[in-house]
Amino acid sequence: MQTELMDLSREFAVAVSMAVRAGAIVRRHHERGVTPEHKADGELVTAADREADATIRAVIEVLFPRDAVYSEEGANDPARLSRARVWIVDPIDSTSDFLAGGDEHTVSIGLAIGGAPVLGVVYNPARRVMFAGAAGVGVRFNDAAVAPTDISDPELASVAVSKKELARGVTFGGFGRLRPLSSMAYKLARVAAGMDDAVVSFKHRREYGTCAGVALVLAAGGRATLLDGSPIVFNRREPKQPLGMIAAGANLHEALIRRFAAVAGAEQ
Predict the structure, then answer these.
(1) Does the reported pTM lie above 0.90?
(2) How far apart are CA 145 and CA 142, in angstroms?
(3) What is the per-residue pLDDT across 252-266, written as a single tens digit (0 to 9) for each?
């Protein structure tokens, strides 16, 4: 999945600003206390999710009126499938962590063009840290340029994994260290920044919490694919990806794909 280099400087600046604004909303609700609610599908939601979503959506609709918005907290408008540019947003990735008073939830704002993730901003409002990047320009953690690690041996790797997957009994063996974390966006962003060597998830992930993070990994020079090594395509008709995913530096990613090829085959 290749995209031509393009000038995304305006989109980048707007995405960072939106993430900071949405993060301030999330932090305000976090400090005051929130009441959990449930959507029709049983997923958790809060007033903070809805307010942050409305703030992001309003900015995009004014500044990029021809673009579509695909957000966890908005209606899934099929018209997005005919748009080349789609902003894919999770105003609070890991609402469960947010409700528990944790500090691993994030604001996730990604831009996909022609199905390819080309820009990502992941902001952790509790820790006040920002991961931001775009195709062709690299990734920054706050004000520092960052990149994935170059480790190649899985047995030496620090691998970020889902707390929920571990709680369900999913096993991740043969790694130097497992780092259980909430928010898939946060896990992907940390890999892009070299804070962890890889992230592995067997869950069929939704686009909202992965577009920005995958864009960051790719922009930083790493690799992010489905478990079988195929590209992760966004703005799909189906709500979930067909397989789990792996992201890492290029050397480690190749080794992980070989390791999990049998798992990917069993899922298909």
Answers:
(1) yes
(2) 8
(3) 999 999 888 755 555
Rg of the chain (C-alpha set): 17
Mention every residue, 6+ apart, whose C-beta is less than 8 A from residue 205.
Answer: 184, 240, 241, 244, 245
Residues of each domain in the chain carrying CATH 3.30.540.10: 9-146
Query: For residue 252, what is the enclosing H or E element?
Result: helix 250-267
Every domain of the chain with CATH number 3.40.190.80 lies at 154-267
Protein fold of 154-267: D-Maltodextrin-Binding Protein; domain 2 (3.40.190)
Q: What is the pLDDT of residues 216-232, one digit of tens each?
A: 999 999 999 999 999 99
What CATH class has 9-146?
alpha beta
Cα dihedral 112, 117, 119, 125 in deg (nearest 10): 100
